[in-house]
TrEMBL record:
Protein name: Exodeoxyribonuclease III
Cofactor(s) needed by this chain: Mg(2+); Mn(2+)
Domain Endonuclease/exonuclease/phosphatase: start-end pairs: 4-248
Organism of origin: Dyadobacter chenhuakuii
E.C. code: 3.1.11.2
KW RNA-binding (keyword) present: no
Originating gene: xth
Amino acid sequence: MKIATYNINGINGRLQVLLRWLAEAQPDIVCLQELKAPQDKFPKKALLDAGYNAVWHGQKMWNGVAILAKGKELQEVRNTLPGDDQDDHSRYIEAIVDRMLICCLYLPNGNPAPGPKFEYKLAWLKRLKKHAKYLLSEEVPVVLAGDYNVIPTERDVYKPERWESNALYFPQARKAYKELVDQGWTDSIRHLYPQETVYTFWDYLRNAYGRNAGLRLDHLLLSPQIAGRLIGAGVDTHVRGWEKSSDHAPAWIELLENEN
């Protein structure tokens, strides 16, 4: 089973890129972020025609998250991150798929930092840690996937010294991410490739993709009940080079099928 996360950076403007990748990669489950589309403008029919059912939480102009499942039913559980009734950003959605809880998230960027946007990011991370701890207490298979907008370590960024003033790399954000993982989650890609250079994002500026001057921002965390099924992981970096592609590339994992 292949599960992927992909910040599409505008689902309608990049629909052909998404459909091309789905046809090529054939993922079973996909978490999408940054739909940049209101709820009624989600391309449900095009995805159904491609074989994918979906649940989504849209928002006009920015944010927006979705979960796709190829030939499988999805049961939406929630479409907001608990802990702040005033937060109206579309950044989180959960669904049950094939006896797994799939959680798709789009964590705030936090720039410019320091400032209110960074404080919002830290507050969101605090809420995420609390909810993730609750999910672990349920002792069920959980995949916590998405664009975390956090560079976990210096190994996850090209020339880390250039990012020290960026919210993606601020010590507080990296500390919060580590605390999240240390609850008992497995960072899939880093677990399988502890020393390798792995990036999932390349800026549109300064030929970043051509120079492989990237960042690892997109993570798939696994609960202990599913981590033992992890047999593969990777990033479809070539997709970033397609015409009109997102500045992210799809990151994915492969799991052994559940025999129960």
